[in-house]
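Annotated sample (chain length 458).
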Amino acid sequence: MSDNANTVLSSEHEPHEVRYDLYRGHPNMGLLPRVEMQQIMSDFLQGEEMMDSWGQCLNYGANAGSGRFRSALRSFLDKRTAGDDRGELPPSTPFGFENELFVTGGVSHGLELLCGVLTQPGDEVWVERPTYFLAPGIFKSNGLVVKSLPMMSDRSDRKEKRGGCIGQIDMERLTCMVEEEGMRPPKMIYIIPSYHNPTGRSMSVEERRTLATFASKHGVYLVADEVYHLLDWDQSSGDANTPSCTGKRPAGIVHFNDVSRNDSGCRDNEEVGCCISVSSFTKIWAPGIRLGWIDAPSFVVRKLENYGYIDSQGGVAPLMGRMMTHAIESGLLDRYLDKLKAEYAERHGLMCKMLEEEPRLTILAQDSPRAGGYFIWVAFPLEVNSADFLAYSLEHHGVKFMAGTRCDPFATDKGASGMAIQSCARLCFADLDRSELITAASTFIEAFRSFMTSIEYE
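Output written by the structure step:
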């Protein structure tokens, strides 16, 4: 499915022009690092010594990626996450094992590789509900059975608090299913713990540790899509780059591998650690460079290095890895990311303020001290079906957004979660120019008010 179409079909199959696209999860064209890339290419062409250094990356590379690139990337990640909240684990506490980086062509490529080395057709992968709408297709293409994690929104007694529980895993129920009811645990759990796509929610430190402990105990690979982890800001102050005492970002999932030190799980004792992170430069630099990484225990990286197609091709994107090494070492990436965070923080705040003007719209995750990512998840009154509203919005106002059901792999199974998701929508604030974004948000609100009037008189 392409996000680039400028027309869509209504339920009557009549095309409607998209005037304002709040659906597409792309970065704004004007914010892409074209000047920074020009600087990198200019540096590449200066001097024989530089040419010799860069020339090496035109050949085949190491299976896991260039050592220099991985070292630079590790330093960058360590610096940008130094203030993350690790709960009871001090930042200086050693884990007792080593996480390693493996270079990929992006998050989707990383998920594909992990499916290839860690799973077999017929294995189960449990995902959040809702989730990133294209991830289940990757798992199904590998012959995996996709099932829903138990969610807090499944509980009928939480209907009145649906804003706070949509996207939250029901850990009590998950533990009961496996440890008391005898349900076989999955091979893999896929989560988006930081600035979730689509809900914008972030898991707390305690939620991350509890889930990591469960995964370690039952031999489950816990795979976290952390593509938005570094693209965040302090929501209370609106300052994108100043650390907040009250809004520290929970640490990335690999930092919770320490639970494995006292838990051998169901796998070989040499395979210590169950938490795996997949991320990329897609959101913090540019999608077009097609470069990302897997951060995982050493035994996972060994499996990836020995994977047939990786072993044959000789590593992923050595030239682009060299470019991003230069971006990191020269400080270009840090400076660019700081600017990007500031811009998106302003866009997010601006759109939220506009949406708050309509009291029947509820912005989920708004009470969190930190925000991030590309999306705002909006809840409508329960009687509103977001797919019906989308069709109306397109026909009468030309505003496109993502209906909640598009993010629900189990939309045919309504239940409490399905009904809650059905009355929500995902809005992207990253793609449009700022002036267009203001007009789009205003028109979206106008469309909603008009739609509510229309259903009141049906």
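Annotation: Residues 5-14, 92-97 have pLDDT under 50 and may be disordered.
Annotation: The two ends are 33 Å apart (CA to CA).
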